[in-house]
Amino acid sequence: MEFCRSLPKIELHAHINGSISEKTMQELLQKRSQEGSKDPIERWTTTIEKGDKSLDEIFAMFKVIHQISNNTDAAYKITYDIIHEFAEDNVKYVELRTTPRAVPDTGMTKELYLESVLKAIADCEKEDLDIIVKLILAIDRRSDVNIANETVDLAVKYKQISNGKVIGIDLSGDPSVNDARDFIPAFKCARSKGLKLALHLAEVLDQNAETESVLDLPPDRIGHGTFLHPEVGGTESLVAKVKQHKTPLELCLTSNVKGRTVKAFDNHQFKYWYDMGHPCVVCTDDKGVFATSLSKEYKLAAETFDISQQDLYQLSYKAIDHIFDTEDTKAILRQKWCTFAENTFKANIRNLQ
Ligand code: IMP
Ligand code: ZN
User: Fold this and answer.
1) Left, alpha or beta for 260 (phi > 0: left; psi -120 to 50: alpha)?
2) Which residues form ligand 1's pocket by a CB distance below 6 Å?
3) What is the mean pLDDT of the segment spanning 288-305?
4) What are phi and psi of 93, to 5 degrees?
5) Smallest Cα–Cα separation from 271: which of 321, 222, 229, 299?
6) Mean pLDDT rounded to a whole number for the chain
7) Which of 88, 109, 129, 229 is the most buried (most CB within 10 A)?
8) So which cofactors does this thing need (predicted)?
C-alpha cells in the first residue's frame, strides 16, 4: 500500500457525486440538519463500506446523494474537497466527470452548477497542489436527445470560457435504461467541436448490438467494457473493434465487484485485456460510494493479478498516453514519472546491493 500511495497516478474515470469522501459527506449532512431539513439522511445510505449492492440499489443511492448536493455551495465544496483528496493520494492528473444538473428549488441552474464546479477547479489551481484537473460533462442515459444536445452545447460553451478545462463528453447513468445509439449524433457533434468521448459501454450483459454501433464511432476511451469478450457474453467482433482502434479501457475493480457486475476480483475483465497488452487504465469510478481510493485500486490490481512494482509503475505511466489533455501536459507528466522511477527504483536497487 505504501508503494501504491507513493506512486504518481492518473485518474480518468471519477464521477463527482460518486466521489464524495466520508468527511465531506458528514459535513454536508451536518449543514443540512442545521438548516432544518425535515428528511434526515443516514451516512450509510451514501456509501458501501462492506459487501455489495445491485446496480438498482446503487442508482437509488445516487438519488440520495443528489438530494444532499442540490445547491451550488455543495457543488463547490464537493469538487474542491475531491481535488484535494486525489492530490493527497498522489494523483497528478484527474479528469472529473459530472452530469450538469438544475435544481429549481435551490435556484441552481445547469450553468450555475458548472460554474461552481469550474470555480472549485480554478481555486485549487491557485493552490500548490501538484495536480492537473480537467472536466468531462456527462450525458445521463435517462436523458432524451434534446438534453444530450444541450449537454454538448454546454461543454462547447464552457470549454471556451474555462480555457480548455472542459475536454470531453461521457455517457453514463443506469446502463439498463434507454439505448446509447440514440445519442450517436450528439457524440459526433461533440467530436466535431473538439471534444473527446469517454463512454460507459457494455457495463451490463445483452447490449451487444448497442455496443457494436457505438464502437464504430469509435469512442476515445471506454468505461468498464465488462461484457465485451465472448467468455462473458460479448462477441469476437466487439473485441476486434476495441483492439483495432486500441481504445483504452477505464477499469474500476471495486466498483464492478461491489456493483455485482463482476463476481470476484479475479474474474475482472482487467485480466483479459491486461494480459493481451491492451491499454488499460485503473480508475476509481465512485471513490465515495464504493469506499475506495486510487491507491487501493492499484493495490487490489497488484494483489489480484500478481503485478510487480515495476509493472505497476508501467501501468500508471502508460495511463499518461490516454489522457484527453495536450501533448505538452503529457510531457510534463512523463517527466514527473521519470523522476519518481529514478528515485524509487535506483534506491531499491541500492538497498539490494
Ligand atoms: P454526477 O454526474 O457528478 O452527479 O455523479 C453521479 C452520477 O454518475 C450518477 O447519477 C450516474 O449517472 C453516474 N454514475 C456513477 N457511477 C456510475 C456507474 O458505475 N455506471 C454508470 N453511471 C454511473
Ligand atoms: Zn462510471
Assistant:
1) left
2) 15-18, 62, 98-99, 138, 140, 172-173, 175, 200, 203, 255, 285-286
3) 98
4) -150, 130
5) 229
6) 96
7) 229
8) Zn(2+)
Report the candidate in 314, 334, 297, 303 with the shortest Cα–Cα distance to residue 5: 297
3-state secondary structure of 283: coil
CA distance 221 to 308: 26
Residue reference for cell 501536459: 329
Peptide linkage before 100 cis (omega within 30 of 0): no
Q: Active-site residue among 203, 210, 250, 297?
A: 203
Burial status of residue 244 (CB atoms within 10 A of its CB: 0-12, 13-18, 19 or more):
exposed
Domains of the chain with bracketed CATH: 2-20+69-351 (3.20.20.140)
Place of cell 517527466: 335
pLDDT tens digits, 86-133: 999 999 999 999 999 999 999 999 999 999 999 999 999 999 899 999
Burial class (CB in 10 A: 0-12, 13-18, 19+), 166: buried
CA 150/CA 312 separation, integer angstroms? 40
For helices 327-352 and 309-318, the axis angle rounded to 10 degrees is: 170
Predicted structure pTM score? 0.97
